Each structure stands twice: as structure tokens, then as C-alpha cells.
Amino acid sequence: MDAEAKNTEGAPEAWRDITPDAARRLMTAAVHAFAERGYHATTTRDIAGRAGMSPAALYIHYKTKEELLYQISKVGHRLALDILEAARDGAGTPAERLAEAVRAFVRWHAEHHTTARVVQYELDALAEDHYAEITALRRASDGAVRAIVEDGVKAGDFDVADVRGTTVAVLSLCIDVARWFNARGRSTPDEVGELYAGLALRMVGAAG
């Protein structure tokens, strides 16, 4: 069993505000079902069974399967935004703040790779209004990193010809960790975070 699944996938952190306990169990079950089978191949019966509940019990807490995906996406994207905004607003040079943003963002995607895969790669299954809300959070995350890069350019610390494109490249590099990270692999989340922080600094032409 995946180490993330063994620990009920960060439930005390990511889902701590989800109440009651049954709703939280359903969300955790949905994360693993969506990550394993994909959103469209997962049924409400699959989710309820993983949570040790009946399919009818699921509808007490979530009207549809899509609402479950939306709640997962919203929690994940808000956590990501908090990480990036904290780095943007933190102390230090632009290089130090960019390194911290990437380090923390990558570490979260590695430590919570099952959730992150669902959060990052099942967006197209969201209803139109939910999709709009989540993409707004993604734009805010992009904006937080872009602000750090812009600060570095203005200070003369970064050599970046295309701030917007470079920001997208940095974020894409971080997000992709969720796709390949293996908790039983050779690298820890902290080690991957450090590696990617160095890569990001080289991408913006800063001394690493």
C-alpha cells in the first residue's frame, strides 16, 4: 500500500476542516478512488465502499460525485495558494523567496501526491461554475509566483526575458512531481524540494 494511503492521505491536515467525520471519510475515499481509477471510471458505490458506507449514505453529505471532486479541488488549490502566497510575502531576497516557494510547493506535491494528482489532473471533470472558481485559484497561485519573479527582475537579481512564460514553466515543473513521485523511491519530499528549488533558480538566471 502507498505510504500516503496508509496514513489516510493527510486527513488530519488537508481535510481537518471537513465535518462530520463521515464526510471526511468519504472525501478521503474519493481521493484514492479518483487517483486509482480516474474520475469518470469511479462510481459513487466505489467511493462509499472504500469509506465503509452505503451509496445512499454518500448523498447525505454530497449531492453528486462531481461535488466531491469540487471539494477536493477547492481544498487542494487553497492549500497550494497559501503556500505560494506565504513565500511571496515572506522575508528575504527574491531568490530566497522563489526557492522557498518552490521548495514548499514541491514538498506538498510529493507528500500528498495522491491528492495532488486528483487536484491537478481531474479539472476537466468539474462543472462549469466549479471549474471557474478553481481556475481563479490557479490564476492567483500563478500570480504569487510571478510577483516573486518580477521582484527579482526589478532588483536585477534575475535574468528573465519572459516572466509569464517562466512562471508557468516553474509551476509546471513543481506540479509534475505529483505524477511521478513514489514514496518508496530513493528521494524524500525534502530532497526533491531542494533539487527543484535549485532548478528554479537556474531557470531565472539567479545564482543557486
TrEMBL record:
Q: Would I find Transferase among this entry's keywords?
A: no
Question: What are the HTH tetR-type domain coordinates in residue numbering?
Answer: 20-80
Keyword annotations for this protein? DNA-binding
Instruction: Tell me the Gene3D superfamilies matching this sequence.
Output: Tetracycline Repressor, domain 2
Q: Quick check: keyword DNA-binding in the entry?
A: yes
Q: Which residues bind DNA?
A: 43-62
Q: What is this protein called?
A: TetR/AcrR family transcriptional regulator
Source species taxonomy: Bacteria, Bacillati, Actinomycetota, Actinomycetes, Kitasatosporales
